[in-house]
Design goal:
The protein is an alpha/beta fold. It is built from 19 helices and eight strands. It has helices at about 1-35, 55-60, 65-75, 100-105, 115-140, 185-195, 215, 230, 235-245, 255-270, 275-290, 295-300, 310-315, 320-325, 335-340, 355-365, 385-390, 395-410, 420; strands at about 80, 85-90, 165-170, 175, 200, 205, 250-255, 345-350. The longest helix is centred in the first third of the chain and has 35 residues, at about 1-35.
Length: about 425
């Protein structure tokens, strides 16, 4: 009878042993493989060393049966071995012969493994950079020795038509001043999603990239400051000031000369019928002495009649250009589009740091969980190209061009392109 009980005891103990062995295997091997193949799962930290009871047994390796049974049957840190009478210590964790689990997990795509400390440091660096940009703007606007056109005028003196680049989102309290050739298409898309100003099948757009480009640049899509007069009459300026005081205001800028190159490439190197009729044809007549020109861009391109970059610079420097009409928005100075000395911007982003600035701004607006800024292709018009583009431009023209855009260089912290302005 006693022998039968002893057999049942050992059978039960063996069953417990096998169950715990399976648990140990799953904890130490199975979950490791599971986490490696699950991109959205949080990595597990190392298990604490066992302290007692069955929980302690799970942390031990199954190939050390004596220690395993000691822990299972006993309760202390060290137990007497019933066979030898010696005390045995729990075995140390085995040395790993493969790469650390954390290193393997870093190879999982689609997961941000940035440490909290690194993320905090990065966030602090971005906040510091943003504060420097805003401080530079405010200091220069307050500096009486730094002068440029329209700097001293009051907000009330800005003509209504010059406020057409300030897009308002009343749902989130945001004002965006868009600057063409500075990722404005995608920022306009973001503003459409936030303000829910455009519907698709009766529902507001949720994904910025789903919004067709032709709708993005349709002026009727956006609520801009220049439309306030029609809505609110004589109260419009007061309402603008209230919103400017309470809303978060932002803009994105770019190296002024690189922006000019980008504008030239997109509007004159490609067949653009509107820009051919309005700008290219008059430039060719005035600066190439051509009297008989094709009526369409496609015909002009087939005939090899294209505006050169030198023609474009000559056009910008020509005093007649501004007398006929203000600069087109694609090459108008940022200070004339966004009025940085009359509007105290809360965020100044740059195309050169677009990804980081966009993420920081969406966090600031508390909409980063709702949408992401559309991924941008690598900018094909790089600052390193300036030397090549301006190589054929006379030095005197380069110096005059810098004077024309100097306020944008200085206000937004872009270095003076000395190599282009000296012999």
């Amino acid at each position: 009878m006693a022998k039968a009980r002893l057999v049942r005891f050992w059978l039960a103990l063996g069953s417990v042993f096998m169950i715990l062995l399976i648990i140990v295997y799953w904890d130490n091997v199975g979950t490791a493989h599971f986490y490696l193949h699950t991109a959205l799962s949080r990595p597990r930290g190392p298990k604490p060393l066992p302290t007692g009871g069955p929980e302690r047994a799970q942390g031990l390796q199954a190939d050390n049966a004596d220690a395993f049974l000691d822990v299972l049957l006993g309760s202390g840190q060290t137990q007497s071995n019933p066979m030898t009478g010696k005390k045995s210590q729990p075995p140390p964790p085995p040395a790993s012969h493969g790469p650390p689990l954390s290193n393997m997990e870093e190879k999982v795509r689609g997961y941000d493994w940035t440490s909290h400390a690194a993320a905090t440091e990065q966030s602090q660096a971005q906040a510091t950079r943003q504060a420097q940009r805003q401080r530079l703007l405010r200091d220069l606007c307050a500096n009486s020795s730094f002068v440029f056109p329209t700097k001293e005028r009051a907000f009330d003196d800005i003509p209504n038509y010059e406020l057409n680049h300030l897009i308002v989102d009343d749902r989130h309290g945001v004002i965006y001043c868009y600057v063409p050739k500075v990722a404005c298409t995608n920022w306009k898309r973001v503003m459409i999603v936030l303000s829910e100003s455009l519907l698709d099948g009766g529902q507001p757009y949720r994904e910025p990239l789903a919004i067709p480009r032709e709708h993005v640049h349709n002026s009727s899509t956006h609520l801009t400051f220049n439309k306030f007069w029609r809505r609110y009459g004589r109260f419009s300026r007061h309402l603008m000031k209230v919103k400017l005081k309470k809303y978060t205001k932002f803009l994105f800028v770019r190296d002024p000369f690189v922006r000019l190159i980008s504008a030239f490439r997109s509007k004159f190197e490609l067949q653009n019928e509107e820009f051919y009729r309005r700008f290219a044809a008059p430039m060719l007549r005035m600066y190439s002495n051509l009297t008989s020109l094709p009526t369409s861009a496609s015909a002009a391109f087939r005939a090899g009649l294209k505006v050169s970059f030198a023609h474009f610079i000559q056009y910008l420097l020509d005093p007649h250009t501004e007398r006929l009409a203000p600069f087109n928005e694609h090459w108008r100075q940022v200070y004339r589009l966004c009025h940085p000395c009359q509007i105290d911007y809360d965020f100044v982003g740059k195309l050169e740091t677009l990804d980081a600035d966009a993420a920081q701004l969406l966090r600031l607006l508390q909409v980063d969980q709702r949408l992401h800024f559309p991924p941008s292709y690598r900018n094909r018009t790089a600052r390193s190209w300036e030397q090549g583009w301006f190589a054929g431009i006379p030095l005197a023209w380069r110096q005059q061009l810098y004077k024309l855009y100097e306020a944008d260089f200085v206000l937004f912290g872009y270095p003076k392109p000395e190599s282009l302005l000296q012999d």
